[in-house]
Amino acid sequence: MSMKFNKSWRNSLAAIAATFLAGTPWATFPASAQVAYGNESIEIFVPPPESSSSKLCSWFIDPAIEAVIKRPVFNGARWGILVESLASREVIYHYNDDKFFIPASNVKLLTTAAALQRLNPDGVIRSTSVRNWIATTNLRSDNNYAETLFRFIGGAGATKKALTELGVNPSGFRQVDGSGLSRNNAATPRALVDILRAMHSAKNREVFLASLPVAGISGTLRNRMRQTPVQGAVQAKTGTLTGVRALSGYLEHPDYGTLVFSIMANQAGSSGQALVSGIDEVILRLNSMSSCQ
Is residue 230, in this structure, part of any structural domain at all? Predict the structure, then answer.
């Protein structure tokens, strides 16, 4: 069934969903603290929300997600979200998906995807294999590794050319560094989803996929979404700057198969803790979605 429905249905569903969600354990969600450690961004584990085994009819996914991103705590925040089925390309949810956002370390997806189209994974950079260099760049979100890799393949022009050859629209991103530290980087959720979709079947896909952190298990996601239904089911790249949080990757959905997603939130002056919790809650709501039949 299509995820699209007319405005009157949407408003009715929003009202029903808001009433329903207000009484669930999801109505409150604990914040996750973050610390900087060298060139890495590390999430500190905070106990997860109470897990609900109830399923959410797919008709309600729009109001369910918007009940999260439109909370008062996010007043002034800009959210960009795109979620698609990998197999069918069906749009599950979208919100500002063609708007530009500061992507923070999600820029590393551009850098590593482009590098894997230009380099042999068994080649060497400074006595380290390209395969391990890619893994360190994404799994640990190492900024020095990302910048070195960016320069090694030829900078912004080279990444743009490689990604365009993968079928990614170059007008959907602006890259000025390899790590995402610059606030002059910009990307749309659609561009990031297109990169992830292309890399799922591109040359050296296995190296790219293996480099992504896994929720509750590895890398910068090892302390997020632990003890929840999506532990081990999300492979994604985190993004962290002051007032910026992002998460883009894949969700192995129990009913809908692999979903490709990009979630970015820009909120000036925010500590980011609420944004991290909001992003994780969106993922949990997506995972709870099921057929309405």
Answer: yes
Q: What is the largest CA-CA distance in the chain?
A: 61
Domain count, the chain: 1
CATH code where residue 49 lies:
3.40.710.10
Tokens of 104: 């923070």
Which band of pLDDT confidence, cut at 50, 70 and 90, is reported for residue 149?
very high
Give just the sign of the alpha carbon dihedral 201, 206, 211, 217.
positive
pLDDT tens-place string over residues 98-132: 999 999 999 999 999 999 999 999 999 999 999 99
Structural domain contains residue 1: no
Q: Range of 32's domain?
A: 7-290
Model pTM score: 0.85
User: No. of H helices and E strands in the chain?
Assistant: 9, 13
In a domain, 201, yes or no: yes
Taking alpha carbons only, the member of 140, 183, 145 closest to residue 41 is 140
Alpha-carbon distance 64 to 109, whole Å? 28
The two structure tokens encoding residue 67: 């009940």
- Identify whether 2 is part of a domain: no
The one-letter amino acid code at 49 reads: P
